[in-house]
TrEMBL record:
The keyword Nucleotide-binding belongs to this UniProt entry's keyword annotation: no
Gene Ontology MF terms in the entry: DNA-binding transcription factor activity; sequence-specific DNA binding
InterPro entries (alphabetical): AraC_XylS_family_regulators (IPR050204), Homeodomain-like_sf (IPR009057), HTH_AraC (IPR018060)
Residues forming coiled coils: none
Family annotation (Pfam families): HTH_18
Keywords: DNA-binding, Transcription, Transcription regulation
PANTHER family named in the record: BLL1074 PROTEIN, HTH-TYPE TRANSCRIPTIONAL ACTIVATOR RHAS-RELATED
Name of the protein: AraC-like DNA-binding protein
Key word Transcription present: yes
Length: 273
């Protein structure tokens, strides 16, 4: 772990996570990037980040500032054995405020800051990061840049009902219940949610549920994870992971945490992850 201060309070609505990383994988390979309810901005330090949609090498994109919108398929992040940089997870509101555009504009995209036509201060950030020699200085520069953009205001925030709907969907509420809560028909809700984040409410909810399971996988039996996170059963959990992540939960654990003791494989028997 690289010791850095937490995300400043003024940015926490917009920056869900800000993670400096320095990883030695030991050999070249591919890391699996899972769907998320946040928009990912990666600022690599050593080499441009090479990322594609899994199984689709023709979509490969290399950039010093890799930006990916909301998506419902896994990404393949290619590395030469080590990686250093800063990764940001931006909220849907944060994309409006910091990048000056709705998250829907980036849905399903693998792009960079130049192609996304974001504010100049952000486009200049990768080059400025490369002039700094410490993690504290790099993180400080990122925080100051984002704080200045937040103070500028960017695009107007999503309308309150849409923001509330996204929060309810993230928490696992059923689409029909969310529509009732915010006072829209399901069709109207779908139109507004897609216009804001690029995903239909049901797709956003599926991604949010996958994201929730990531926090508890390897700590509880898979059947318990399925019940806790709102899946019909363990088989449903496995089908959703295969569809969205391109692998089963156990496979993901083995890839990410080779020494984590899992409490049950995808068929229910115990296994070493």
């Amino acid at each position: 772990m690289i010791p850095v201060p937490p995300v400043p309070a003024a940015l926490r609505r917009y920056v869900v996570a800000r993670i400096p990383y320095d990883v030695d994988f030991g050999a070249p390979g591919v890391h699996r990037g899972l769907p998320s309810t946040t928009i990912t901005l990666v600022l690599p330090l050593d080499d441009p980040l090479r990322v594609s949609w899994a199984g689709r090498p023709a979509t490969m994109h290399a950039a010093w500032a890799s930006l990916s919108g909301l998506h419902t398929e896994p990404a393949a992040i290619h590395h030469d054995g080590s990686q250093r940089g800063v990764q940001l997870a931006l909220s849907v509101e944060g994309v409006r405020v910091l990048l000056g555009r709705p998250a829907a504009d980036l849905s399903g995209a693998l792009t960079d800051l130049d192609e996304a036509a974001v504010p100049p201060a952000l486009r200049q950030l990768p080059e400025r990061l490369h002039t700094l020699g410490s993690w504290s200085a790099r993180v400080g520069l990122v925080d100051r840049t984002l704080a200045a953009l937040a103070a500028r205001g960017g695009d107007p925030a999503p309308q309150a009902e849409v923001a509330h709907a996204l929060a309810l969907l993230t928490a696992g509420a059923r689409v029909a219940d969310v529509a009732d809560e915010v006072g829209y028909s399901r069709r109207r809700l779908g139109t507004l949610v897609r216009a804001e984040c690029g995903l239909a409410p049901k797709a956003f909810q599926r991604v949010a549920r996958l994201e929730t399971t990531r926090q508890v996988l390897g700590r509880r039996p898979l059947a318990e994870v399925a019940a806790t996170c709102g899946y019909a059963d363990q088989a449903h959990l496995t089908r959703e992971w295969t569809a969205l992540a391109g692998c089963t939960p156990t496979t993901w654990l083995r890839e990410e945490f080779p020494f984590v003791q899992d409490h049950g494989d995808d068929g229910g028997a115990g296994s070493q992850a």
